[in-house]
Amino acid sequence: MINIIGLGYIGLPTALMFASHGVEVVGTDYNKELVATLNAGKTTFEEAGLDDLFNEAVNCGIKFSTEYQSTDMYIVAVPTPYDKESKRIDPAYVIASVKQVMAVCPKGATVVIESTVSPGTIDRYVRPVITENGFVIGEDINLVHAPERIIPGNMVYELLHNSRTIGADDKAIGEKVKELYASFCQGEIVVTDIRTAEMTKVVENTFRDINIAFANELVKICRSDDMDVYEIIRIANKHPRVNILSPGPGVGGHCISVDPWFLVGDYPTYSNLIKQARLINDSMPDFVLERIYNIMKENGIKEVSKVGFYGLTYKENVDDVRESPTLQMLESMERHLAHGVKVYDPFIKADMVENQYHDFEAFLNDVDLVVLLVGHDEIKENMGKLKGKVILDTRNICSIEGTYRL
Ligand SMILES: NC(=O)c1ccc[n+]([C@@H]2O[C@H](COP(=O)([O-])OP(=O)(O)OC[C@H]3O[C@@H](n4cnc5c(N)ncnc54)[C@H](O)[C@@H]3O)[C@@H](O)[C@H]2O)c1
User: Fold this and answer.
1) Beta-carbon-side half-sphere exposure of residue 106 (alpha carbons within 13 Å)
2) What atom of ligand 1 comes closest to residue 155's alpha carbon?
3) Fold of 2-192
């Protein structure tokens, strides 16, 4: 039986995937409400295919609990934020959950850390917890790092098809864990050591952050000198070895906007490019705000209350708002005492921010300038409804004449 610790965006779909492929699973989370919701037969976030996978897993006997189980296999998928001051990883959730595992696990158990961690985290923080509990690593407890790569919005498909990395002290244990993941994963599973697996995961997200930052820097350069960045990128990408990404209002989510800081925090001397990329991407919400104020002036829009933000999530077709550019813009406006902007997102059902609408038509009726911040399918399918509005499109999805871009 596997006990999966942490049933959030990563732990839950992973638990469901194992269970629906015939593995006995108990999912544990310390959030009582979350566990009660799952036990009541409901999923806890929106994700394509998740409900069907959930039903399948329930039929196969998956259990959810707030209690850690005594078993020989644990997968830990708890949060790994970064400390805003030091920029280093905050390992507190991982440490706390491994401590709780140590309190119930028998000798011979394997502990797989799935959470994203900076290189050296397992040496510095996880190994001591295990040894302090009287276990000998490699003899009593096997330690493995199996970072996750799935993208919200396409999690179920990617769990099945992505390649994975397994880092283990002992190759034979790595192969055993590989076999377990191969119960559902059809992608290549590479077995390596723990530090390489830690670094590889962080490097992947850092690569993406830097590439996004390049597109965002280009948009600033082009805006400053009246050049069409989208046309330039379109043409440049015809070069066989060039693939510039699309600029946007910033980088959100719990991975790309967080993990590169781990490298900046741990290797400040060598991470200049990585740090600059982070700073460029973090500057985009303010860049969009400046665009908004200029467009308001140009169109005689005097009240912030006549501006509407479409999209609260950090990316399209998901309900995850963590670190989202829209939230960063709202915070920045709050600091500048600019109140009254209207907000709408079809994926956010609960009231989360001031002046939030739950009805698209009502939202449109109340604003003159619509700022497209997230390219949900809903807006792509209803773009015609924006006709007559002043539009700022930060995602390059609107072809209505006169639309402003970044
Ligand atoms: N969300 C993504 O797209 C994504 C992608 C790849 C990797 N990751 C990584 O996966 C890890 C988990 O991220 P997430 O997005 O699933 O986080 P999350 O916040 O959605 O879920 C974490 C869950 O862990 C629970 N939890 C925290 N401490 C606990 C403890 N001691 N015992 C039991 N439960 C505990 C929380 O209640 C929460 O439900 C992070 O390291 C993240 O960087 C996330």
Assistant:
1) 7
2) 3
3) Rossmann fold (3.40.50)
